[in-house]
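Q: Fold this one first, please.
A: Sequence and structure below.
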Amino acid sequence: MAASAPRKTSTRKRAVTKPAADLGIVLDDAAAQAEVAELVADREPLFTVGGITYTIPKRVPPSWSMKAYKIATEQGEAEALAFAAEKLLTDEAWEALQECETVTPAAWEKVLNALVDRILPDGVLGPKA
């Protein structure tokens, strides 16, 4: 029997398919974005000025709460309140509040408390006075 020619070995490596990496919980995919948009769009009345009712979201994304908490602890409650107003109120609502000369101190306090209560979890800044 004749000797067979030595077999050539390929120096190319086979492509190895790795299993998909475990990404854990994907927080910014399209489904999450849609859920947050829906969350913010579900609103309830906060106040009425000039026959126009202004609303705030019934629930807020946790990221808003985390950011408000961080602002409150690092910069103070006033800055956290400013952040809450910016996130929760439309420009028109904020303008209406500023322009309404009949806002009483009691009504103003209710609006501010509603903003803080909505964006910060209970007791984050300690008991209310």
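Q: Good. Now the second chain.
A: Here it is, same layout.
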Amino acid sequence: MQTLEEKAQRYASKAHAEAGQRRKYTDEPYIVHPAAVAELVRSVSDDEEMLAAAWLHDTVEDTPSTLEDIRSHFGARVASLVEMLTNQGAVAGQNRTARKVAHFRHTQQACAEAQTIKLADIIDNTRSIVHFDPHFARVYLIEKRVQIRLLTDGNPTLHQMAEQIIEQGIEQLHQPPWNVPADWFVRQEEKYLL
């Protein structure tokens, strides 16, 4: 008999594989990301529904799966957690900044468990962004800095890890060969003031 988490792992693996999803910079099977998120969540919680949601957190956003699919396979609480983590979609004519601010507000309203999963997601996505895409990292790291300030109910250990990895990435970008001036980051951050 499979546990809820094992069932979620299999479901997410199949959904992401069938959607042909791969990790952007490494071309690894996409499931390595939900696996890393689940392990980070496991380091602070043994809540099986949280762990299931960690595996499933990108399925509705990135595959044909729907919240109703998640609800029918995993129950209302897992579906609710996934919904709190799912980007609500762009409004026609919205620029990137407006889309991100809307998503930040959405995750700010999420429960503590969903915020904890989101922090794990940010940690995994941020680990190597400077190495693989330093130009995009300038924008991404500021967005994540703004977002984690709003995730005040998430696990404090993961919050601290996320903050540390973001600040280390920004510090790297101050150094050669990138030499991004500190005032560039200040101006960028001002775009996201809520």
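Q: Anything worth noting on the second one?
A: The longest helix spans residues 156-174.
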